[in-house]
Structures are given as structure tokens and as C-alpha cells.
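[Q] Does anyone have a clean C-alpha cell version of this?
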Amino acid sequence: MKYTKSILGLLSLFFVLNAGFSSCYSEQKLEVSVQNNKGELSQKRFLERPQYVFLDGENPEATISLINKVLFLKNKIIVIDRSNRNRLLLFDQKGKFLASADKFVGKGKNEYLQFSDCAIDKDKQLIYMYCDRPYQFMIFDSDLNLLKVIKTKEFISEIALDKKYLYAFCVEPEKNSSYELRRYDKKNLNGKYKVLLSFDNVIKGVGGMGHTLCDNGIHEIKDGEVKNSMAVEFGKEWFSYNESKNLHGRRFMNKNKERSCIIQNMVSSDSILFFNTDRAPFYKVNMNDMKGDSYKYFSDNFFPYSSSWFIPCCGLEKSVVQYISVRSMNAYLKMCKEKNRKPMPELQDCAVKDSVTNPILQIMKIK
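[A] Here you go.
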């Protein structure tokens, strides 16, 4: 069984969605009890030694500010940067820059594009990008050549693909504060769709967003249907919807500054599920006995300068992807030089240059 997340939706199967949903299936919800653990979650206990990918940043067109999502398509790596750079970038498996979608982002009236989310069709080697300004799908081949543009009327926050369907997390047009998880036939993205899950209860104005879905549920989507669901019980670490539903923006944040309200950044193997929450603690769930633990820190035993967050990724099974920021790597290289130390063997390539211009991917298989 495979597990992925919503919030930044990934290829096939698991979506983390909103509270108060009315689903289109009658499966019984599984409950996962999470125990609070103030200690550290050690990488070495669960992860293999990392593989590092140095993303080429010599070309100004390849410069990355923030990695929002990474996709792996055969021997290529696709990176989404939704910061003010607004970039879709293509690298080979060693990090060499191949192409960007910058040429499609115009500067004139009605030409500007805002990239939102991306998914891959592994069978046909295609890249699906959804833009929320204007609302449209852009379908690229594996070399980032644009094949088709499909205009839509819906606002979509996330997409995912499997062999037959495209799954879209949409704002329900009749109620701009309601959401639906829809299933479309990949061959007809403007055709009929099936609503798999619908969501009515949201928190308004959280984190700079118009509406935010805050939920402790995880749903397994397979072959176009909802197969299983589980509710993660966080205890006092989770916010109270009833106490917070009428609070907006800063008032909500102040009341719940010590509590989580979003599950995100999920990665898994057949038996272990890892995820972050919006408050950054780390969680590990044993899928055999449906019990979990929370940890205050994720101890990086391999390279302590890397980001502790998991990067949403697609197309790479049973793996954790993190990144090392430009600032952290350059500080590390400077320290090695000043103290006359040799960098880690895996980082020798960038040590030759004394500095880097793009983040470095740290990829680890789950044991």
C-alpha cells in the first residue's frame, strides 16, 4: 500500500483533508492514537544514508528561492518554486539544469501565469501543471515542451494523477468556502466528474489564505474511489474546531499557537508513515498497530544543516526528500575552509566551488 498527502497533493492514494466532511462512501474510519514524545526522532533508525543532488544554479533561469514540491519522472527531476520567482524547472538526475517554463510566463496584459500545483503521468511521461491565474491546465512532455492548454472555470488548489484519473481539490462553485475532492477522466478534464469527498467546515483567513482546511483525517484514494480513512487523535496538541471556527486570521493564530491544525508533508513505506504538521513537530505512525508518536525534533544524523521539513514529492516511492539551503551549505563550506577540514565525501563536488547558488536535495530511502 502507498501513502501520500493532500495539502500539497501527491501522486495516488492518500489525501489529508478538512474536518466536517460528508463522504461518498461508507467505510469505517480507523483511529490512530498519537502519544506525545518530547525527544528526537533519529534519522538513522529509519532512513538509509542520503543521496545528494546538487541542483545547478549557474544559469539565472534556474535559480530557486523556495522548493515547494519535487517530482521524479524517469531520469529527470522537476522542481516547483511558487515564490515570487514562480518557476517550473527541469533537471537531470544529477542536478544538471535542462529547461524551465519561464518563457510561458508573459509580462503583458492577460499573459501572466501563476503556477499552483503539478503532477506527473508516469505511463505517458507527461507533466500536468495547474495555474490559478488564469485557471488552466498546462500539459508538458518530459522535456518541458508545452503540448496542450486546457482552460477551466474551477479554482483548484491541488492535483494528483493515477493511470486513469486526475484528482482535483476544488472550491465548490455554489459556496466559495466549501471544497470538493473531484475525480476527472484524464482524457476529458472539462467533462463530467465524480465528487469523492466534500468539505463544509473551514477556518477563514488563516496563514494569509482566504480559507484553510484544518483536519485530522487521512483518506486513501485508489483506482478512483475512497478505500479507507483514518482519524489521527492528537489530544491536546490539536486545535479545537468549535472554539476556533469563528476566529479569523491573527486571532486564530494567537489562540492556537501551541496547537496544530494541518497535517502535511506525508511520506511512507508499507509499514511506517511520517508527517509534519503546521507547527513543525514530527510524527511517526506504525501502520501495523495504528499507533503513533510525536517528536519535538527530527535529528539529522547525516547533515545537521539540512531543513527538518519533508518536501512534498511525487514519483519516488518509500523515500524522504529534504533540502539544504544555500545559506546553510555555504556556511558549512566556509567553516570547513576556515578550520581546514574536509567536507563530507558526498559533498566534495560543491566544495570545489567554495559556494553554491541553489538548494541541495537530500534523498533518503525508508528502511
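[Q] Thanks! Anything notable?
[A] The CA atoms of residues 220 and 228 lie 5 Å apart.
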